Amino acid sequence: MDFDRLCKVCLVVSIVGIILGYSSNVIFWFSTRNPQVIGIETVSIDTTQDPIQTDPVNKNPIHIGHINLLPQADYNISGMVVAKNIFVPGLFSFDSFGRLAPVDLGIVWGKLVDPDFEKYITFKSYKTIDRARILASHPKFDYPFDYGYLSSHISHNHIIPANNNVLKALISVKKKDIVNLQGYLVDIIINNRPVAKTSLSRTDENSYARGGGACEIMYVKRVRIGNKVYQ
């Protein structure tokens, strides 16, 4: 094969890859629209309390293909969304954790629940080059709370949806929404190999971002956004 022909083949392959990748993104976004509301609750979500974490009632593994999720705690968290990141599972993505847990939500509670929080602090959920998924917080000079309160009232949740309707609801979540998530904190086993362990504390920290805390891996069965319930 001469050089010109090789270049043409490479160009065609690249164009086809781009088209397939773009098409997979379009399919993902269209397939995750319009979640079905299964109920309306009139009592406001209580964002003043810490997340409720108890020993799991059912400790049996949750099987998703060759992946096992090991419940470590029953978990119920209420608060305000301050950051969100979605990982679109493209055709050429080899990030199995991203495919399994496509949504990250940064949630705060207690005194941090303030619609005007961006006046004194910014949050960002992002993925590093080595695929670590981080929630960074950057308080401004007039931030009214100390570091200890911030770090113990914020949670970065890597979310594994129990079904497609839960996924749709999570994708519809917007920054500053008041939400309640119910499900399990889980460890992840892929092909009999431990891949990721959930945090079981609101006060531990990762090594990347001051104030971000270590992350919860949450299998979510029920989502409430405002007064609308999805499961």
Defining key terms:
231 residues; alpha+beta; two-stranded antiparallel sheet; globular
Any overview of this molecule?
The protein has 231 residues and is α+β, with helices and mostly antiparallel strands. The chain has one domain (39-230). Helix content is 21%, strand content 37%. It is globular.
Write the topology of this structure.
Elements: H1 3-31, E1 39-40, E2 52-54, E3 62-64, E4 67-86, H2 96-100, E5 103-108, E6 121-127, E7 133-139, H3 147-152, E8 154-161, H4 164-172, E9 178-190, E10 193-196, E11 216-225, E12 228-230
Parallel strand pairs: 8-11
Antiparallel strand pairs: 1-12, 2-4, 3-4, 4-5, 4-9, 5-8, 6-7, 9-10, 9-11, 11-12
Radius of gyration: 20 Å
Unreliable residue stretches: 207-213
Q: Quick check: average pLDDT?
A: 85
Number of domains: 1
Query: Which class best fits the helix and strand makeup?
Result: alpha+beta
**How many beta strands in the DSSP annotation?**
12
- Sheet-strand content, in percent, reads 35-45%
Main beta sheet: strand number and arrangement? 5 strands, mixed, barrel
- Count up the helices: 4
* Gross geometry: globular
Helix and strand pattern: HEEEEHEEEHEHEEEE
Spatial strand arrangement across the major sheet: 4-5-8-11-9
Relative helix content:
10-25%
Determine the N-to-C terminus distance.
56 Å
